[in-house]
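task queued by scheduler; priority normal; single chain, no ligands, no partner chains; default sampling; output format set to structure tokens
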Amino acid sequence: MMKAIVWTKYGSPDGLELQDLEKPVPKDDEILVKVHAATVTAGDCEMRKLKLPLMLSFPMRLYAGFAKPKRIPVLGQELAGVVEQTGKDVKAYQIGDQVFGTTGFGFGAYSEYKCLPAEPNDVQGVLAHKPTNLSYAEAAAVPTAGLEALHFVRRANVGEGSQVLVVGGGGSIGSFSIQLAKNFGAEVTGVDRTEKLDLMRSMGADQVIDYTQEDYVKSGESYDLIVDVVGRRGVVQRLKLLKPGGYYFLAYAGLSNILLSMWTSLTSDKSLKIEAASQNKTDLLALKELIEAGKLKVPIDKVYPLAQVAEAHRYFETGQKKGNLVITVVSNEA
């Protein structure tokens, strides 16, 4: 048996309960990971509430369970841990290897053990050996946000002298976006709340803006890339800050944003992109290389034990999070 946080109902974090489940057994092409750390992401919270765009929420409910979640018993998209067992066809990993990655549409990281394909496809997530200079807690927080940020800066061809604006720079995707843009040679401006300004500076932002004190949309500045992990209201106004030929990446979008994206592409040479990074090992290894070279840091706000996942979800939804929230499963080694 193993301990896991079971997802018992759609809606509030109260539906996340610590229970005993059967310990999984790896298939021939899988590894069994003893999970040391997991994270709380926006994807976990959106899935828990089933707060997704209409075109996704209905099919997802059909898949997961119409009245309550059944097919996905345990949430959690990111993990880091140790390989405890391998299937007979696995060549890439050995017992004792330290790994990190994502669980894809299977979720399941909020548990003491998780079986993962040794060579997952996009739907199944991504997996690699853990960076040697990161703790399990830090490593677990890299894949989702790191891959998204890497996708943004590469897609926009960020290079020496590029001007980059990161809206929501004090969060997980935002903090990686600032660092990666700086690594690619850009001048970076970070926007967030008062209490997150120091974090953005520590990530390397050249300028930081407190949106509660300053209306940066009227600054007269313009940018080659805007990474917006806040979305909601104000996208139309922020789009005016984008240079011709520039890219605006919106991490969280509603139907109105999708329509705006289509209209923007038809009426201007600006690009409003609503797309997710592909989860592939090559990109994860690129992040690992930057981390091991000391070029990427992983900011962690709070760490919660497995039994307090519901509390961690509540804190996430306050919007106060700086960097990443981590769940420790093996508390003395994370």
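post-processing summary
- The mean pLDDT is 93.
- Residues 59 and 146 are 28 Å apart (CA to CA).
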